[in-house]
Amino acid sequence: MKKWRINRPDPVKTAEFMNKCDLKSLTLDVMTSRGFTDFDSLADFFKGEELSDPFLIKDMAIAAEVINKAVDQYDLICIYGDYDCDGVTSTTILYNYLESMGANVMYYIPEREAGYGMNMEAIEMLAEKGVKLIVTVDNGISAVEEAERIAELDMELVITDHHQPPEKLPRARAIVNPHRADCPSSYKDLAGVGVAFKLCAALDGGSYDTVMEQYADICAIGTVADVVPLTGENRTIVKRGLEYLANTEILGLNYLIDKAKLDRNALDSTGIAFRIAPVINASGRFGSPLTAVKTLLSEDPEDAENYVDTLLNLNAQRKQTETEIMTEIVNHINAHPETLDHRVLVLSGKGWHHGVIGIVSSRILEFYGKPNVIISIDDDGNARGSARSVKGFNIFKCFQHCGELLDKFGGHECAGGLSLKAENIEKFTQMVYEYSDPMEKFPSVELIADKLLMPQDINLDNVKGLSAMEPFGAENPAPVFAMLGVRVDKIIPLSQGKHTKIEFSYGSYRGQALIFSLAPEKACFAVGDKLDMLVELGINVFNNRESISIRVIDHRLSGVKQERYFAAKDCYEKLMRGEQLPASFIRKIIPTRQELIGVYKYISAVKNITLDNLFMKISGDSMNYCKLHICVDIFRDKGLIEFRPATMKISYVVPKQKVNLEDSETLVKLNEMLGKAGN
């Protein structure tokens, strides 16, 4: 179960804004719930921010001068990119622009195995090729030693980047990075491709006219892929880019859009984020990033289609590898359920592809709601890890605490990476536990609803009006709404039972909602039950007729008190970690014989159920999550059920003989803890 937070709009402000603009009431409710309390800021959001003068970014004029001089002298210029989608699109834009200027230009992107950013081996190779000027895109801001070597080799260096600068900047002719402390540019959140885009405009005398027409589509893809805030200038770039993407002249993108089965008339940032960007990223994860660059540059139809097919195959490999790693993790957790009792999960495996461990980490965070570190061990005993966290638990500070064991680490509050020797993983894991487990309050993943949706809110005009907020992405997510007390009238299986559709009543509103990846037989609800749901709203068009679509993001039976659930879950984990709790509490969570009988009867009747669904069905004043989990543990100890902790699935087992629950390992352990706690 995930924690929900339902925000409240400001009805006074909504009414005030409705008198000043033609936005719909539901859209204005979302905006006021997100903190837009004055009309000027609201108007600026929807009007869109004009792209500021590229020369406002520190060193942009110098960078343009150095590059233009190299072009005029026909010096060999190398665009030095990065292997992710942001780096690939940055490389493509700048290379294509310089080539169209008649420059003597090449590009270089290191393979993932070489690591992020510049490396000495590549620099030596570029010098041997006769490169006179290196221009970095989406990297370089931390390349202090590499920059010195470039100078020693009598090459010039221009750095364009968007990552946070270190205290000491590299030696370069120009360092174009909006995050520089001395940069006067007001907008700081550009992706690497956004900085490259502005560099092209600077090379064109400061005008965006040509570069917008030629590169807005590619720039939009890189911007969405890098998950930078879709506010301000980024919002403008993506909005314009989506317009150009629908009719793009880039052969590779045309093939990719068609093969991804995207509707050209309804291209949006979600389509980029889930259908285009992962395919481009796959080249850097499983193949060569050069394949992705060639896909975007190719002017030969046959070659372009072949490149796209290669990318799609690589993406399929990526998905398969993710699934294999997730299967290993599930098996590990089922064999070692104590793993889940800790506040931060540390999971490692041999040969896990380091190109996907970041994605796996994100999936683990989403599924378990816990910060985690996923570590891949190679044949030489070296290990690399990727981490994801939640706001409120700084994973980078956790790494600092463990720094003595790490060869290298970096990151910020919610994400990070590290490398260490495999022999140190066990000690590293213990240090992570020592750092995180004792924390008094620990944050969890929250699903945020913009407002409680009322039946009268649900109409075509209101739902269509939400599109004014697009493009959606980081810091401007698609609106989410809460619906409380929805009555289930009918349950309909879809796609051979893979998904579920429900027909429901919500006050005066009658509608349908889709719940993806939920088989009807695994649902926590039945016809007649009342649900609380978090949903996204959209418009379906079929035979030129529009209808409202409702997609369920999360759901639970009505009446669940989430604060009690999470408090009891935290107490259960403390018990399992062996933390001493008051005797009065331990006595309260030891189930009585009658409580055990009640829980067992329910499980034996339904045969298969998840722990959360069981909790929603039978919890009450005397049966909280902690006590219920203990009941399940007791039944597992005595072989009355099969319990798979990784998925929290409970399966009834027909008993072969009578058992004595009193001597179960769980009850014995609890009674020992009670004895230590005293009376």
TrEMBL record:
GO terms for biological process: DNA recombination; DNA repair. Residues 450-554 form the RecJ OB domain. Residues 77-223 form the DDH domain. Residues 343-434 form the DHHA1 domain. InterPro entries: DDH_dom, DHH_sf, DHHA1_dom, RecJ, RecJ_OB, SSDNA_exonuclease_RecJ. Gene3D superfamilies: 3.10.310.30, 3.90.1640.30. Keywords: Exonuclease, Hydrolase, Nuclease. Pfam families: DHH (PF01368), DHHA1 (PF02272), RecJ_OB (PF17768). GO terms for molecular function: 5'-3' exonuclease activity; nucleic acid binding. Belongs to the RecJ family. NCBIfam families: recJ (TIGR00644). This is Single-stranded-DNA-specific exonuclease RecJ. The gene is recJ.
